[in-house]
Amino acid sequence: MDISGLTIKSFHNALQRKEFSAREATDFYFKRISEDDSVRPFISTLEIQARERADAVDKMLADGDETGPLAGVPMAIKDNILIENTPVTAGSQILKNYFAGYNATVIEKLKKENCVFLGKTNLDEFAMGSSTENSSFHITKNPHDLKRVPGGSSGGSAAAVAGGFSLAALGSDTGGSIRQPASFCGVVGLKPTYGAVSRFGLIALASSLDQIGTLSKTVEDSAIVFDAIKGSDEHDATSDKNEYGATAFFDDDSAKKLTIGVPKEYFSGGMEKETEAEINNALHVFKKNGFTVKKISLPHTKHALSCYYIIMPAEASANLARFDGVRYERNQEAESLPEIYKKTRGSGFGNEPKRRILLGTFVLSSGYYDAFYAKAQKARQLIADDFKRAFAPADYGVDVIFTPTSPTRAFKIGEKTEDPVSMYLSDIFTVPVNLVGLPGLSIPVKKYVVGSGELPVGFQLIGKRFHEKDILNLGMWYEREVGE
């Protein structure tokens, strides 16, 4: 039986029927990981720990204990999320010898659900990138075309799910780092509302933008994982005490009552021809089925990317100051403290972190703070006001906003490495969501089969704050309509 083709629900049902054991499923995935070295989604695997957890699930089942939908589910975890006593590198040489001292809150929650953690997935260094080419370990490849990137920074997690190396995965999203690779790899990617999921135990890039989320085969799978990891956390001051109901359910009547907004600024040119055609096909599915679709305007969207690439490097330069050669076990021969800093940061960080640290330090420096950073924060508020008007009943009154996820399909490895600005433009449709803290969901336009020769395209659904249920319900409706 090819377990890699199952969804979380079908895996759970098969496990309950004893068609296979959790240990057999875990062994299946590790065999697949070891035998297929073409995609390389993982930085490290956790075989001993995973098999112990799988055995514990099998004992629960043998004893007749009740288990939830995630029990025994083999998952991949982005390597900037801490799992106690295991390596965590954030894709950087500066952390290559570092072991996590505690579990991230999301890991604690998934452990309570009896998930099995297969390993830590590859990423752009410190989540800085849109292709996973910036990892200091190796390049992960897109399972649909090994000459192309899987997207980034959560490219390893997206490739693991798309390539059948894990059933689902966790990633992090600062400006599109879950949704863009989900689009490139033909899987579902959920970036929850800022504050909906604890960031405790996530290695920070930009603290006002970062959010842990999910990558999965179906929208329902993302809802199941989201239900397990959402909620407030006393260890994270930015987590919100908003009380959610369950989101992993489908309500056809509620879905069809949602009004969909389509911002003209996202369809004003610049998209790859093939991508635009697929996005329009997806939008037509909603229109032909009687959904209310409104044209709306988000006029300050044009400033989002510029705003993001001032705020994000500024926060990154502060967050990455902690990696100084003193606290994270990277020892260098040096005769003074400044020399330790210089040698550690000079050799430990790759080009992209250095670029962003320098940019961030510059925009925060005396004489430039007001000229750049302060203005970017004002522009951020204008972007947030646009979204408020879109959702306000007295204005456009939409429930969900429909956009492309990325302006292109997956590009070739090496195609954009010498042009950082071109790489940054991959996130042009996703960064506004992070700037204003809204939930975003990337869904494949149709089912893409690895080996078919088709390059996936995803569309994005943006919801109101803490209204993940709207975008997830609408996404489940779409999957049922076009066929999972």
Give your account of this protein's structure:
The protein has a domain at 3-255 and 439-482: Amidase signature (AS) domain (Amidase signature (AS) enzymes). The chain is of the alpha/beta class. Helices cover 38% and strands 11% of the residues. It has helices spanning 8-16, 22-35, 47-62, 105-112, 155-162, 179-185, 219-229, 252-256, 273-288, 304-319, 337-348, 351-364, 369-391, 420-424, 431-436, 468-482, and strands at residues 42-45, 74-78, 116-121, 168-172, 188-191, 212-216, 259-263, 292-296, 400-404, 440-444, 458-463. The longest helix is centred in the last third of the chain and has 23 residues, at 369-391. It has 16 helices and eleven strands. The chain has an eleven-stranded mixed sheet, sandwiched between helices. The mean pLDDT is 95. The protein starts with 7 loop residues before the first helix and ends with a helix. This is Glutamyl-tRNA(Gln) amidotransferase subunit A.
In short:
Its EC number is 6.3.5.7. 38% of the residues lie in helices and 11% in strands.
Based on the model shown, name its key terms.
484 residues; alpha/beta; Amidase signature (AS) enzymes; eleven-stranded mixed sheet; 11 strands; 38% helix; globular
Largest sheet data: 11 strands, mixed
Helix content: 25-40%
Average of pLDDT: 95
Quaternary organisation of the protein chains? single chain
Family: Belongs to the amidase family. GatA subfamily.
EC number: 6.3.5.7
InterPro entries: Amidase, Amidase_CS, Amidase_dom, AS_sf, GatA
Pfam families: Amidase (PF01425)
